[in-house]
């Protein structure tokens, strides 16, 4: 553990940034381009600072000046193309390690960057007086694919009239996509931000708006922002558009912005923000750290909520009117999340990636406190249970989630998470789902800490961290206090121990330093003689994603005489625990039974075991362990637990358990819960579905009308005519949610023929028919959408006769009725669209279900039209989901292609991300199944997608990696032909000839370096023979990367591996010089990278050789090695260049790849 | 289905119309026709007197019409004069005054009457003056109450002044109303969507019969979020209606909107302490000039750069 080390913050850079100016003086919506400059004020921390590494992606850099002197620079981005283009490698292990290496190579947290600026020698020869340097960089962005998103609706009118806007976005530190900076959360500085925009637009950015000034022609205005609080570049954002402005009526320093026409919605949606502010400020006993706050609602948002220093960017779809019920809590939650992150995440930033969990944990935790206060304890506990279930399911399925990874010595072999197909070393290599689970676990662990040290101490710790940071933030840079605003795991833990005086080391070790969750199995027996409960708790700690738990566990036993808590000690070898019971069984005495909360209730005890005083038993009722519990107790105990335990978590657990007991008693318990209005509505909703399942299991013995029908009639239908539902009145939200859910659950009922009972279907059709919302003050769009879902649920597979073609004539009569409704709903939606088009979404799902069940012909064209850009995003996602499903069911290569094309071209980043996510969830085939879809072209296409096609969006690239993993697994995809030998070796004659089967344009790659900078000549073949390097195995590729990295870390000697080219800015002729610089690199698209990587590969081989890293066990693979080495010595350099140019055109318009064009070195 | 009262009324008027178009058959019409005929004979005689040998039918008709109008006017005028003097039957002087008023020289009348070439017209055939058909009596006529003298006119038929239900009792049965509303709405919706589908582009779920279950084609819009987020006018309208009718519930819901589930007893108190949303704009309005928000400040003019 290197936690001791990170006690103080040590910058990985030889300089310290103190202030940065960002000036964007032109934003062209027509061309989607941006022009501007940045100026960084830096203090060198070493003598002779000769180069400055900054982060910059996709920016075209025109000139760099350091203290008014032109400075040469290199721009190299190895993440553009992770593995070089011609590589025939197709295994994911190889890719993942190369990708990790590429990200590491430009990682700002390690002091690296894509942009390397050479400080003019005049400046560093000045000797040891460490002077301030001002680095001035002019740049432009043309049609950015990441970082900034332009939304330009294609209508008539000026840009402002069209509602065109642009905003910054990104996953983690992605600011480098839109201006050059030190893109690290740990490099804080003050900011001056200037944006010149059209006079009809507003530029919203971080910090205080100091003034707005017209330009001389009065057509534009410049917004001047100043952010005096030291802030990391990733927390800087921008939104420009013709926004409507709303000053918060309660807090005048808070301003809200929305797109034209949405102001009424904005007013309503923001009307409670002040409550959230008050809440956080109160619990943290700390004022909101920034002097102002801005919320901006934009279209085509990357994520629903993103927080930046003093502002948050939200999806415009969170806005709603007062008529909408369902969206209201969701929007409030999003606001609360955004605000929590303002304190922890924006104001207090993380020291390193390994400390991310602390910030995510704290912001998630205080957000939870807000939920508890606003939505109530039941909602809060329900949420915690949901989050716990999510993380447990994920870890058990995918393997552990590690909150605080440590990389001792940087050895890849010490990979703490070998079960994952990606590296967790960088946020940018992380799968999105993993990151979501990571955040979920982080806040759960914070809750565990709270359980341990009490909430009071917890809040004191937060307060302490905030006050430290806020003292530091007001200091000048020279005081060296700014690092107090960075939070590390160590500092956090130290603060906890200082405040609480408690040692939470074991807890941290268990949940933070270690991955995995605990899986308990519990069962019990009651020993009547000893009046003792013999509880057995076993653990599974061998499966993936599990860990062993040793320590205390709380068990709550409800007996006849009351509820009793016992704390048991889970130890290495003890499985059985004896718990003495307090009460003798005595069921004859009629007495009220005291519950945990002090309430005393009458119970009908006839169901229970006469010999035992036990009503129910709960293991770890407070969820103070990240665990899954499978507990066995009798059905009547679950029923008692459901009816009488007041904790919603217990009730929900009981409901899930009762599914296994389809008996009249379970039915009764569930029905009682359903009717009980004091019961939490989400429990009642869950009971609906359980009841449906129980009814299906009891179908042969079921008595009376279909489950829930009479209940629904009693609750929601007219007294005089029970077949007609009352006119809608959703004023009581609990019953509204129940009214929505019951039909959906009822539609799951099946009769003996496994069909949905006729009277249930008619009942639902009647609900639709008699639905009357005229007197309601709330919209019924969600309710109607649920009724359509109910219709969908009622569908069962059509009886098919030899795959006959589905025609209108042979349509089942019931299905015809359903289809009539869906047609009418879908058509009405065109005339009177519902909020968020919920009805269209439900209809599309219903149609897909009709197709899937063989009632109507399976046809993707309808979904394709709804998936087009220009429909509301929810509709698009629903249509795409149907298409993904179609692709899987019909194994359609065309649709898969169509989807993949959309992944590459769609303007909305969220949609692209979603498509890949859905393809992963519902894959057309998997690594374990055979499919005609799995072919070489698809492998190549996906490889290209993750290798270079998604370089502008970290999240998307990781999605592509996930899909590749789902489809092909970690190793070489099975559908590929056996690896061809690039060369046919004739060992006897010691001659090598080109394998004629290899296509020249793929295989061509000059190995010999055209430059004399190559240190080691290619070893002769016969010596290579002895080495067992197979790049396709995990081990070797990792070793290769690792070694590669080591090489980079070494002080390089002039002209060692790479040719360097210093591009001079402006019109000056570029010149070549050999420098001391070694570009940290991995296989990269450009020519120079190519040679670098290949040469280093050689060195890696050598090092293996020398270090006796032999791999005897791979001898048999000997033949396949060196596949793409030494292939073609004879190709001309010119051809090489040509291809290079082609490559660069394919995937990037960045100057980084275009560099080779201008490179004089290549023509040398 | 059709209201019997209405339909019978309809057929009645239709019958009357049909009767008039046929040859005169009713006694009243016969009477009028005979008088007209006599008038026509008189006109013809006058024409002959003046020396005409023949006349077009249309000309005769016109003259007859003029004559009739003239006589009618004399009668009306004379009647008016007589009534002016509070009498009910006109006397000769009334007629004379009427003639004078109409610009007729009365002195010439005796001479004209005694002219030699005067043609004698046969007396018109005696026809019975038409009997006014007896009004359909509906109900008992009311007798005069005590305070009204008996010589006053009788009350008219009761149906002329009291409501006569000619339609069926409106259906107030809840079930039927709901049924009807639902059917009606569904019919309207179906007709509307069918119409839209017929007149525009459609998509179909079936390949064999593209007219079955036609779906209005999905058309991408340029700004999709607007229609998806903004409530439709219809919804706004209903909201206004319910708002005005359910003023009392308003404050209720205002409080509950935020807290869908409120297990926290403190939350209610919290809410009640909040100023009602109605109060916000007013406070805002009053403070509008006080709000110092940088985004509300006026944009500054560029500084004029002083050269040199």
UniProtKB/TrEMBL annotation, chain A:
The record ties this protein, via Pfam families, to: TAF2_3rd, TPR_TAF2_C
Q: Which GO MF terms are attached to this record?
A: chromatin binding; RNA polymerase II general transcription initiation factor activity; transcription cis-regulatory region binding
Location within or outside the cell = Nucleus
| InterPro entries for this protein | Aminopeptidase_N-like_N_sf, ARM-type_fold, Ig-like_TAF2, Peptidase_M4/M1_CTD_sf, TAF2, TPR_TAF2_C
Q: Name one GO biological process term.
A: RNA polymerase II preinitiation complex assembly
- Region feature (Disordered): 1072-1164
SUPFAM superfamilies reported for this sequence: ARM repeat, Leukotriene A4 hydrolase N-terminal domain, Metalloproteases ('zincins'), catalytic domain
Biased composition range(s): Polar residues: 1072-1094, 1145-1164
**Limits of the Transcription initiation factor TFIID subunit 2 Ig-like domain:** 515-633
- Stated name of the protein: Transcription initiation factor TFIID subunit 2
From TrEMBL, chain B:
Give the superkingdom in one word: Eukaryota
| Residues of the Bromodomain associated domain | 31-108
- Basic residues biased stretches: 298-308
| Claim: Cell inner membrane is one of the keywords in the record | no
Q: What's an example of a GO molecular-function annotation for this chain?
A: protein heterodimerization activity
Q: Which UniProt keywords apply?
A: Nucleus, Transcription, Transcription regulation
Query: InterPro entries, alphabetically?
Result: BTP, Histone-fold, TAF8, TFIID_su8_C
List the subcellular locations.
Nucleus
Q: Which residues fall in a compositionally biased region of kind Acidic residues? A: 240-252
GO cellular component terms, A-Z:
transcription factor TFIID complex
Q: What's this protein's family per the entry?
A: Belongs to the TAF8 family.
State the protein's name. Transcription initiation factor TFIID subunit 8
């Amino acid at each position: 553990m290197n936690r001791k080390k990170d006690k103080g913050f040590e910058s990985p850079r030889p300089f310290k940034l103190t202030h940065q100016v960002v000036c964007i003086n032109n934003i062209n919506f027509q061309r989607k381009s941006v022009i501007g400059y940045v100026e960084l004020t830096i203090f060198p921390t070493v003598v002779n600072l000769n180069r400055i590494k900054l982060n910059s992606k996709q920016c075209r850099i025109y000139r760099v000046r350091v203290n008014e002197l032109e400075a040469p620079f290199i721009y190299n981005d190895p993440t553009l193309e992770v593995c070089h283009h011609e590589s025939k490698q197709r295994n994911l292990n190889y890719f993942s390690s190369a990708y990790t290496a590429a990200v590491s190579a430009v990682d700002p947290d390690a002091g690296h960057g894509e942009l390397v600026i050479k400080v003019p020698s005049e400046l560093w020869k000045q000797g040891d007086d460490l002077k301030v340097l001002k680095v001035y960089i002019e740049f432009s962005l043309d049609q950015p694919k990441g970082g900034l998103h332009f939304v330009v609706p294609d209508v008539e009118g000026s840009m402002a009239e069209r509602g065109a806007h642009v905003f910054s976005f990104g996953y983690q530190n992605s600011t480098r996509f839109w201006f050059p900076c030190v893109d690290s959360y740990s490099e804080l500085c003050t900011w001056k931000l200037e944006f010149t925009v059209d006079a009809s637009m507003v530029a919203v950015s971080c910090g205080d708006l100091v003034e707005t000034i017209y330009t001389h022609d009065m057509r534009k205005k410049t917004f001047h922002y100043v952010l005096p609080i030291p802030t990391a570049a990733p927390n800087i954002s921008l939104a420009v558009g013709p926004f409507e402005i709303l000053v918060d009526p309660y807090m005048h320093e808070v301003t809200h912005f929305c797109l034209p026409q949405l102001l009424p919605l904005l007013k309503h949606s923001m009307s409670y923000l002040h409550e959230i502010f008050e809440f956080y400020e109160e619990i943290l006993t700390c004022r909101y750290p920034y002097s102002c706050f801005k919320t901006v609602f934009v279209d085509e948002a990357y994520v629903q909520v993103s927080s930046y220093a003093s502002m948050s960017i939200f999806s415009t779809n969170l806005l709603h009117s007062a008529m909408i019920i369902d969206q209201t809590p969701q929007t409030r939650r999003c606001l609360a999340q955004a605000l929590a992150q303002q304190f922890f995440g924006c104001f207090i930033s993380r020291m390193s990636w390994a400390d991310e969990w602390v910030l995510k944990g704290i912001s998630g935790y205080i957000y939870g406190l807000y939920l508890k206060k606003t939505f109530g304890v039941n909602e809060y506990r329900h949420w915690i249970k949901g989050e716990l279930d999510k993380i447990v399911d994920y870890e058990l399925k995918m393997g552990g989630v590690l909150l605080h990874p440590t990389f001792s010595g940087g050895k890849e072999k010490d990979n703490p998470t070998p079960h994952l197909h990606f590296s967790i070393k960088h946020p940018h290599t992380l799968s999105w789902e993993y990151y979501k689970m990571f955040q979920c676990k982080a806040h759960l662990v914070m809750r565990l800490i709270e359980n341990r040290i009490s909430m009071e101490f917890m809040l004191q710790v937060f307060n302490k961290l905030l006050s430290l940071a806020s003292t530091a933030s007001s200091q000048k840079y020279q005081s060296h206090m700014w690092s107090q605003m960075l939070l590390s795991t160590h500092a956090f833990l130290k603060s906890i121990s200082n405040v609480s005086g408690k040692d939470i080391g074991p807890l941290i070790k268990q949940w933070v330093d270690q991955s995995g969750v605990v899986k308990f199995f519990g069962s019990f027996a009651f020993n009547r003689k000893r009046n003792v409960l013999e509880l057995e708790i076993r653990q599974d700690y061998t499966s993936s994603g599990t860990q062993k738990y040793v320590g205390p566990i709380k068990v709550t036993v409800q007996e006849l005489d009351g509820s009793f808590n016992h704390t048991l000690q889970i130890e290495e070898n003890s499985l059985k625990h004896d718990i003495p019971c307090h009460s003798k069984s005595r069921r004859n005495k009629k007495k009220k039974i005291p519950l945990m909360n002090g309430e005393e209730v009458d119970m009908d005890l006839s169901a229970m075991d006469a010999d035992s005083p036990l009503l129910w038993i709960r293991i770890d009722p407070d969820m103070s362990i990240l665990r899954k519990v499978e507990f066995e107790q009798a059905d009547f105990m679950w029923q008692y637990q459901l009816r009488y335990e007041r904790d919603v978590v217990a009730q929900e657990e009981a409901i899930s358990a009762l599914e296994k007991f389809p008996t009249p008693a379970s039915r009764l318990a569930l029905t009682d819960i359903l009717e009980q209005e004091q019961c939490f509505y989400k429990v009642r909703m869950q009971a609906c579905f359980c009841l449906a399942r129980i009814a299906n299991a009891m179908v042969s013995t079921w008595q009376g009308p279909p489950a829930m029908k009479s209940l629904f009639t009693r609750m929601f239908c007219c007294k005089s005519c029970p077949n007609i539902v009352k006119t809608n009145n959703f004023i009581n939200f609990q019953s509204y949610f129940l009214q929505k859910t019951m039909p959906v659950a009822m539609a799951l009922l099946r009769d003996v023929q496994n069909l949905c009972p006729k009277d249930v279907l008619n009942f639902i059709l009647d609900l639709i028919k008699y639905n009357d919302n005229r007197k309601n003050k709330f919209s019924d769009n969600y309710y109607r959408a649920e009724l359509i879902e109910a219709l969908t649920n009622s569908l069962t597979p059509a009886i098919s006769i030899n795959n006959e073609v589905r025609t209108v004539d042979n349509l089942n009569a019931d299905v015809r009725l359903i289809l009539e409704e869906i047609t009418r709903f879908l058509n009405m939606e065109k005339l009177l669209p519902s909020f968020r088009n919920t009805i269209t979404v439900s209809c599309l799902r219903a149609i897909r279900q009709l197709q899937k069940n063989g009632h109507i012909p399976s046809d993707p064209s309808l979904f394709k039209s709804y998936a087009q850009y220009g429909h509301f995003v929810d509709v698009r996602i629903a249509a795409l989901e149907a298409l993904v499903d179609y692709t899987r069911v019909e194994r359609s290569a065309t649709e898969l292609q169509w989807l993949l094309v959309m992944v590459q071209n769609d303007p909305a980043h969220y949609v692209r991300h979603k498509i890949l996510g859905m393809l992963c969830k519902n894959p057309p085939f998997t690594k374990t199944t055979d499919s005609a879809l799995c072919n070489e072209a698809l492998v190549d296409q996906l490889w290209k997608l993750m290798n270079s096609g998604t370089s502008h969006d970290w999240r998307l690239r990781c999605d592509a990696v996930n899909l590749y993993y789902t489809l092909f697994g970690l190793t070489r995809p099975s559908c590929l032909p056996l690896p061809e030998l690039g060369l046919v070796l004739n060992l006897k004659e010691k001659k090598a000839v080109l394998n004629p089967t290899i296509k020249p344009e793929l295989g061509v790659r000059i190995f010999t370096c055209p430059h004399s900078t190559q240190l080691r000549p290619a070893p002769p073949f016969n010596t290579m023979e002895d080495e067992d390097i197979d790049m396709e195995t995990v081990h070797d590729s990792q070793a290769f990367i690792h070694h590669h990295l080591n090489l980079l870390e070494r002080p390089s000697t002039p002209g060692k591996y790479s040719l360097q080219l210093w591009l001079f800015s402006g019109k000056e002729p570029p010149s070549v010089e050999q420098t001391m610089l070694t570009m940290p690199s991995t296989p990269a698209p450009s020519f120079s990278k190519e040679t670098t990587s290949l040469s280093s590969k050689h060195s890696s081989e050598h090092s293996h050789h020398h270090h006796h890293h032999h791999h005897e066990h791979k001898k048999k693979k000997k033949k396949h090695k060196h596949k793409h080495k030494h292939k073609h010595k004879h190709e001309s350099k010119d051809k090489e260049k040509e291809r290079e140019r082609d490559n660069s055109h394919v995937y990037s318009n960045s100057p980084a790849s275009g560099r080779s064009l201008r490179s004089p070195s290549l023509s040398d | 289905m059709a209201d019997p009262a209405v339909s019978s009324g309809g057929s009645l008027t239709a019958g009357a119309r049909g009767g008039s178009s046929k040859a005169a058959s009713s006694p009243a019409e016969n009477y009028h026709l005979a008088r007209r005929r006599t008038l026509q004979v008189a006109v013809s005689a006058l024409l002959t007197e003046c020396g005409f040998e023949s006349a077009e039918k249309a000309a005769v008709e016109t003259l007859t019409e003029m004559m009739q109008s003239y006589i009618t006017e004399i009668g009306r005028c004379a009647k008016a004069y007589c009534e002016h003097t509070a009498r009910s039957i006109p006397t000769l002087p009334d007629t004379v005054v009427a003639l004078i008023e109409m610009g007729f020289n009365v002195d010439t009348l005796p001479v004209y009457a005694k002219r030699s070439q005067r043609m004698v017209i046969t007396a018109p055939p005696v026809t019975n003056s038409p009997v006014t058909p007896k009004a359909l009596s509906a109900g008992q006529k009311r007798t005069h109450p005590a305070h009204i003298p008996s010589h006053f006119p009788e009350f008219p038929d009761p149906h002329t002044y009291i409501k006569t239900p000619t339609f069926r009792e409106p259906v107030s049965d809840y079930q039927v109303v709901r049924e009807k509303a639902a059917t009606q709405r569904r019919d309207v919706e179906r007709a509307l969507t069918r119409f839209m589908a017929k007149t525009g582009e459609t998509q179909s779920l079936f390949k064999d019969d593209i007219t079955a279950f036609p779906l209005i084609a999905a058309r991408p819009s340029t700004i999709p979020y607007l229609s998806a987020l903004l409530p439709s006018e219809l919804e706004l309208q209903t909201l206004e209606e319910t708002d005005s009718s359910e003023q009392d519930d308003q404050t209720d819901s205002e409080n509950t909107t935020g807290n869908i589930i409120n297990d926290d007893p403190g939350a209610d108190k919290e809410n009640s302490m909040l100023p009602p949303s109605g109060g916000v704009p007013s406070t805002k309005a009053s403070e509008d000039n006080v709000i110092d928000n940088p985004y509300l400040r006026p944009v500054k003019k560029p500084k004029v750069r002083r050269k040199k």
